[in-house]
Amino acid sequence: MRGGKAPAEENRSGCPAQRVGASVASGHPLASTGVATDSPIMRYAPTMPTIFESPHDLKSAVGKHLGYSPWITMEQDRIDKFADATDDHQWIHVDVDRAKTGPFGATIAHGYLTLSLVSSFMTQVFEVRGFEFAVNYGTNKVRFPNAVKAGARIRGGAEILSVDEAKGGILSVVRVTVEIEGEDRPACIAEPVSLYFPKK
Fold first, then answer.
1. 3-state secondary structure the chain
2. Which residues have C-beta within 8 Å of that of residue 180, sequence separation ≥ 6?
3. CA–CA separation, 90 vs 107, rounded Å?
4. CB atoms closer than 10 angstroms to residue 140
5. Which residues are 149's β-sheet partners?
6. Along the 200 residues of the chain, how does pLDDT read in single tens digits?
7. What pTM does this model have?
8. For residues 125 and 200, what is the distance between their CA atoms, to the nearest angstrom?
9. What's the angle, vertex CA 9, arms to CA 7 and CA 14, rounded to 5?
10. Which domains can be identified in the chain, with CATH numbers?
């Protein structure tokens, strides 16, 4: 979870940031063009990150999809390092030769590796400012409908589900859908819960 320091006006996606105050529904640069969401243009176009000047401003985006992070490649090196960090060296993740004749035809990323990238995807889609600190409060629901093969490209889309005042702060629930390029089924659907403590 990021701290409350205001970042530069250009997000890691390389796109200029969009502040809340304008319509967050127009967050994607192609949102008003009539381009289908599954078109090649939409697939490769990064989303302008939406900036919320305070956690309270998240309420204005409840029920809205804020767009997508850039694509990243799930490299075997990343999978191997995650296996080392978690002591999960099952052959479907790390044995490239054996995995070629396995159920997926290649090594696949750990489900929890994909899940661990959700926070990064969120910060590339939107940024929250004006808080003292924030914590990951949990995850309401996680599913892994599809496997991510080594070498595949993935990205995350974010939709604000709810924002409430709770426990002395602002509690937000975001649905993040991790897509696999060229695949119909997503790799992961998760609903992380974040607790922001606004500056006083």
1. CCCCCCCCCECCCCCECEEECECHHHCCCCCCCCCCCCCHHHHHCCCCCEEECCHHHHHHHCCCEEEECCCEECCHHHHHHHHHHHCCCCHHHHCHHHHCCCCCCCCECCHHHHHHCHHHHHHHHEEECCEEEEEEEEEEEEECCCCCECCCEEEEEEEEEEEEEECCEEEEEEEEEEEECCCCCCCEEEEEEEEEEECC
2. 146, 148, 152, 153, 154, 186, 187
3. 10
4. 14
5. 108
6. 544 443 344 444 444 455 554 333 333 333 333 334 444 434 445 568 899 999 999 999 999 999 999 999 999 999 999 999 999 999 999 999 999 999 999 999 999 999 999 999 999 999 999 999 999 999 999 999 999 999 999 999 999 999 999 988 999 999 999 999 999 999 999 999 999 998 87
7. 0.77
8. 26
9. 105
10. 18-198 (3.10.129.10)
Token pair, residue 18, equals 């969009």
